[in-house]
Write a structure and sequence with these properties.
Blueprint lengths: L13 E7 L8 E7 L17 H14 L2 E7 L1 H7 L1 H14 L7 E5 L11 E4 L7 H24 L5 H4 L5 H10 L14 H6 L2
Parallel strand pairs: 1-4, 4-5
Antiparallel strand pairs: 1-2, 2-3
Length: about 200
């Protein structure tokens, strides 16, 4: 595993930003912003998708303890339907940056697109959660906070298997939509069922 880099620009306050849940059929998109100390070291921190749930939760404790500042923000399904998922991802990141107790001087964004926020310079890094510590830390927080949210709403709507699929388009999730319809947490602007599935269950 390649060693993650501590910063993009040395000597300034840099916040890593990432989001979770863009490809889901249900639930919010969640973003996190994290400012790590310049001397932060972790042998296990990596892109959240490369880690087990247990390891992500352990790292969340470590990140929240060591970070100079961190924040997590949610944008719900009705807003996603209203402004689309890309704009909702940007909005979630903006809300997370806005909630930081320290104003960053530079933003490191996971991905290839970002909507400029206030007057803070930003750099987009494709697959940045596997390259920079602060983005990896943000990916851990966004993923674990979103997973917690989906686990909680699973208690309300257990028929969609959200505790396991977290709102992603699995067969069980789609079967739940066929059998029980949609919920207020579903993204109605998304293709919840394929044309083939609709024909099968018509």
């Amino acid at each position: 595993m390649a060693k993650l880099l501590p910063f993009f620009h040395q000597g300034i306050i840099e916040a890593g930003c990432d989001e979770a849940g863009r490809g889901c059929l249900a639930g919010p998109v969640v973003a996190a912003a994290v400012i790590l100390p310049p001397d932060f070291v972790s042998s296990t921190l990596n892109d959240s998708k490369q880690l087990s749930e247990k390891k992500r939760l352990q790292l969340r404790v470590e990140i929240e303890r060591e970070a100079l500042a961190f924040a997590v923000a949610f944008v719900d399904a009705p807003t996603i339907d209203k402004i689309n998922i890309l704009q909702s991802s940007f909005l979630a990141m903006h809300k997370a940056v806005d909630a930081l107790s320290t104003v960053p001087e530079h933003l490191l964004i996971d991905g290839n697109r970002f909507k400029p926020y206030k007057n803070i310079p930003a750099t987009c890094i494709v697959k940045g959660d596997g390259k920079y510590l602060s983005i990896a830390a943000a990916s851990i927080l966004a993923k674990t906070y979103r997973d917690d949210f989906m686990f909680n709403i699973h208690q309300e709507f257990p028929m969609y298997d959200w505790d396991a699929n977290k709102g992603y388009p699995t067969q069980k999730h789609r079967l739940g939509i066929v059998e029980h319809g949609t919920t207020p947490y579903h993204r109605m602007s998304f293709t919840l069922l394929s044309a083939q599935q609709l024909e099968l269950f018509a």
